[in-house]
Amino acid sequence: MENMEVIKQLNLGVRFLLEILALIILGYWGFKTQHGTILKVVIGIGAPLLLAVIWGMFGAPKAQFGLRGFPFLFLELIVFGLPFLALLVTEKTTLASLYGVVVILNLVFIKIWKQ
For the chain, what is the HEC assignment? Predict the structure, then answer.
């Protein structure tokens, strides 16, 4: 039973890494897809910042306005789906596929284990 608890904790660690990676990917997308230095900086910093604020307010474990049920699932799809789309837009299809598979597996295990 101890091994299962370790695996569950690892899954939560993967979740945290996916949250950080989502911010990095959106920043990368912002700097790569926009034209003009000022717009690149605004989007490259603004998109991850906006995502972090939204996740912190509504999705994080200690969120001030924590969502549950379908609204939370919808938020997860946005927070973890946008980076997938950003990788596709920047033509990083292999990374997008890898990221997508890890996100899906992580979400499935989170739901199964009620984490």
Answer: CHHHHHHHHHHHHHHHHHHHHHHHHHHHHHHHHCCCHHHHHHHHHHHHHHHHHHHHHHCCCCCCCCCCHHHHHHHHHHHHHHHHHHHHHCCCHHHHHHHHHHHHHHHHHHHHCCC
